[in-house]
Design brief:
3 domains, three-stranded antiparallel beta sheet, 7 helices
Length: about 200
Amino acid sequence: MERESNGQLPMLDVMVKREENGSLSFQIYRKPTHTNQYLNFASHHPLQHKLGVVRTLVDRASSIVTKEEDLAHELNSIHKSLAVCGYDKWTLDTATNKTNAKRHVRNSDSEQQVKGWVTIPYLAGVSESLRRVLRSHGIVTHVKPQNTIRSLLVAPKDKTDKLDKSGAVYGLKCLDCSSSYVGESARPLRTRISEHA
């Protein structure tokens, strides 16, 4: 259990502060180990993903922080953190403007014209053009980076050798004649092949 300290208590990513008049105010809370590492602007990701990082941080600050001076401080902190990750000021302005526009405008006509959704791998210059073409036909397109350093370097576990897998369908050719045998084994394939031998 975590106890209140100096009239403050962190709860997930919110710092709850008890004011002198008994009311509560809220700020964004970051653990001491927080690194401010976000998606780098130079990385091979769609622009919408990068602007999504900005929108998420701005939305969170706007919906949680209660005092205007704390909100200004939080937005300044976001700007500094993103600047280190290669984001220019226009990205913060663009994401903030889009967020505000979405709150005030509900485009129900465009929602009714959607014919389907598709996810395509992201390739800079190609995915954007394909997305525009699909959007003109009423197809909502999501892009997803395929090859990441994590996917290339990190494997959760070693791959099982084919001969050690069970439930395999296999084919064997006779060494003495042209006959062949196709079978399925519920046991490890290595065991089954040794029985044929």
